[in-house]
Amino acid sequence: MWLVWLAAVGFSTLSEAAIILQYHHVSSTTPKTTSVTPAEFRQQLQHLKDQNFKVVSLERIIQQLQRGEATVDNEVAITFDDGFANVFTTARPILKEFGYPYTMFLGPALIDRREGPVLSWEQIQTMHDEGVIIANHSSYHHRLAVPNKGESKKQWRARVKADILLAEQQLEQKLGVKRKWLAYPYGDFSAELEDLVTELGFIGIGQQSGAVCPGVSMTRIPRYPSSSQFAALQHFVPKLKTLALPVTDYSGADPVSKQNPPTLKLSVKVQDFKATQLNCFFNGQPIELTWLNAQSFTAKAKAPLKLNHNRYNCTAPSLKKPGYFYWFSQPWVFIE
């Protein structure tokens, strides 16, 4: 059965969680929706330093999750998607000043074709030699979650599997790396894609917000987008005081829905928060939440969702750590 987790699995230290940050461009001239300015980026890193956060490699956090080891709530990992050239020319010098490690997810076919303002393989090799982790973002950066129009499930599965494995092969040939991590293009995934990722022995990494700790699903590891409207410190700082909502059953949380508005169903371990204080939101507005029993609830917006990236966010204040909030973000992919 897809992604059913027992309450006893993981979440041994509910009040501790690490944070993974996600970026695309570091530039003042690229699309605002996927950009953080150099000044904003520097301000964020300075805040991490001033507040004694420990910026660690993504590999460290993933290894902790795989081993079921406790994560540390002052640990932060930095990641970039797509492999844009300004990561090399602008972000890299700033990160070097702070001595912070980072990871870059890229599509090798896009690099080969020079599609957009992307890095060159020479720049990527330099970053790799400097210790930057380079990992899989699929080769072609196509949407992977559901079949294309006119594509059968069998054809979809073959296409997606080939794309993921091709990228892994290209990264191994170019750089000698083979980590079997996949950052989903556009952050879109589905229950069937998660099953395929598991079958291939990969870890799946999303773009939905949230903290991480042992027990978090290894096919939908969350990251906090830190660009656009989320780049300002007033939005950045609260992310660092979040905990992973202890979800024990994801089977009612397939991001793919034929219904809009969609219904989210989750089972959670209610231990360090009060069920009455758990609330869910869409686009900052509260949505209806109904408890089915002591551990399970449903959430559904009143009107159809119309954003480019649709998310339900559910939060609850921690009892053990005043000022901290449990956080879960559910992305949605709509099909006809």
The largest pleated sheet is described as: 8 strands, mixed
Please state roughly what percent of the residues sit in beta strands, choosing from under 5%, 5-15%, 15-25%, 25-35%, 35-45% or over 45%. Answer: 15-25%
Total separate domains: 2
Number of helices: 8
Termini separation (Å)?
25 Å
CATH topology of the largest domain: TIM Barrel
Please describe what this structure looks like.
The protein has 336 residues and is an alpha/beta fold. It folds into two domains: 19-244, Glycoside hydrolase/deacetylase (TIM Barrel); 249-334, Immunoglobulin-like (Sandwich). It has eight helices and 20 strands. The chain has helices spanning 38-50, 58-67, 85-98, 108-113, 121-129, 153-175, 191-199, 233-239; strands at residues 19-23, 25-26, 35-36, 54-55, 75-81, 103-106, 133-136, 181-183, 203-205, 224-225, 242-244, 247-249, 256-257, 263-268, 279-282, 285-291, 296-300, 311-317, 325-331, 333-334. The strands form five sheets. The chain has an eight-stranded mixed sheet with strand order 11-19-18-15-16-17-14-12, with no helix packed on it. Strands 1, 4, 5, 6, 7 and 10 form a six-stranded parallel sheet that branches. A two-stranded parallel ribbon has the order 2-3. Helix 1 runs parallel beside helix 3. Mean pLDDT is 94; it is low at 1-9. This is Xylanase. Its main location: secreted. GO terms for molecular function: hydrolase activity, acting on carbon-nitrogen (but not peptide) bonds; hydrolase activity, acting on glycosyl bonds. Keywords: Carbohydrate metabolism, Glycosidase, Hydrolase, Polysaccharide degradation, Signal, Xylan degradation.
